[in-house]
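Reading group handout, session on sequence-to-structure problems. Before we discuss, look at one worked example. The prompt was deliberately terse, the way you'd type it at a terminal:

> structure Transcription elongation factor grea/greb c-term

The input record follows.
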Amino acid sequence: MHADLEKLVAKKKIPEAFAARLDKFSPGNYVVHKSWGVGKVKEWNLPENSIVINFESKPDHQMELKFAFNLLTPLPQGHYLIACFEDPKGIWASAKTDPLTLVRLVLNGNFSGKDGEDEPQPIAPEDVEKNLKGRVVPEGDWKSWWEKARKAMRDKSEFILPTRRGELIALRGETMSPAAALLEDYKKARDLRTCVRLLDAAKPETLKDDHDVVLELVAALEKDIEEGGVNVKQQILELIIVRDELIDALLKSADKGKDGVPAADQEDEGIRKLMAAIPDMTTLDSVLAGISSEEIVAFIGDVPAARQKKIYEALPEAHNGQWLSYATNIFLFGGSKAIGEVAKFIIVKGEGEQLYQDIRNGISRQSLPADVLVWICRERKGAAKPVFTLALGSAIMNAIERDASDGGPNKGLRLRNLLVEDKQLAPDLIRNVTESEARPFAKAIYDSASLHDLDRNLLLANMMRVHHGLQEIVLSRTKVQEKQQLYVSIESYNQRKAEYDELVNVRIPKNKQDLTVTRAEGDLRENGGYQDAKATRQVLMRRSEELARNLAQAHPTDFKDVDTSRSGMGTYVTVVDPEGQEAVFTILGAWDSDPDNRVIPYTSKLGQKLTGHAVGDVIKLPFVPGEKPVKLTVKAIAAVNP
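And the output record:
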């Protein structure tokens, strides 16, 4: 305890418990403020109730002791933030070449300061970033440094890494082999999803030489496979595949023998027991036989491609004569991450022609999901070449319009972006047909409300390189577009343009960054932050598309010098009811609406009823918004902007 406090306690001027609390703020100790960062107490003056602290961003900052109690958190001795405060450049110099030196410093010095918690505590990845980025690691170097640090941690069994959002980074209490560390983590896992993530992160080459531990891990896997419930079928399939891979690696390692001695000259009781147990283990095809195609399409896209391949290879054994329809159902409804692998499997098995016929039927009925259409377009010079025809163009436009009208732009947006960004896609669709055959597809593109004006024009321009006569579509649509043009006030146009600019330049890029950051945290299925960012992206993209369409149609005007001989857009219309009461209606642009103050857009029903009248005309309208219509006489017409 500080000498000043000991004197006060001895004189019984302050309780000993309070002195112990106060001692944490004595000169030489360290504190942290949520905005000012870490600080070292330079001096204090107890009689005057003041304290001077050297903060990272506020050197020699003086404050009242009572405020220090409320605003500052004392740092216990040995805390990693103290080392980062005292020598950030020195720590960064060593961390640049060996990231684990800094990671170990953090994990060995993450003391909570709470009574009874004397050991360093695990830490969340986001707290590591919050406390190190800009303090020790320069902000511009953070991303590459943290990736390097995470990779290094994965290679060291001393670290326990999170497998999902919300879990912490920790140090193991003892040194153990990679296989032993994996087994320990596997046994502690809360569910089979976590088990799969742990096995995904493991490196097989580091496990194969630790036979006894791997045998125990295989036994634990088999137990979970046998006892797994109906709600974890994906994880059971993946555990079977991982178990078989471990067994293969173990047997290959045993065949090579230990220390170069042939395996035949060695006794390995564990290997013999394993080989004897293999025939009784649960097989991939036996589990697949109990999973319907409707069930598997819900999760097959979340299975890594290499494991998907093994699942497909087991289908003929699992479903006998029904395997082709089963695989075709996966192709149609399994999602973008399953389509390529299952199509390759069907073709390799010699059933490609049947798959192509199913695709042709889907194109003619315009019932293929957007993911399948994307695959056909991308594989048009490869696996999908037999079904890449002009008929596909109609199916693409139908899918884009359907998804846009359903209010779910996720899959339709992907297809639309492919159509717009792949500059050869639309020309390739019409390359082998006549101009008259290509014309309906070109019209569908040019008339689509789901495509921006610029995108439509670029698509038509690309198609004109194949058939020049398609430019007539552009010319014939010009007059129609002029009729569809909306007149809006400059103020309302600027408001929507500002909203669109903020979406495109600020909110969407930030959301993209959020997706990147949360995706890096792993396990997208359990990652709440990633799912939230993905849902937000759908809302932002839908709104940006809506604004882009509206702005393309809009013609801003200041309503200058409008004709006041008759009521219309840009005029004040004064009306009188049968009792002599007057009211003034303001007719403005399509986006100007304030019913309570009788400001109405010219495109509204009320605006259309008010338009085209001269002074003295009698019209039937509600005098008060929301009430029954009455006969009103037009008394005066004046310009909004004379």
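Points for discussion. First: Residues 220 and 611 are 80 Å apart (CA to CA). Second: Confidence is low (pLDDT under 50) at residues 256-267.
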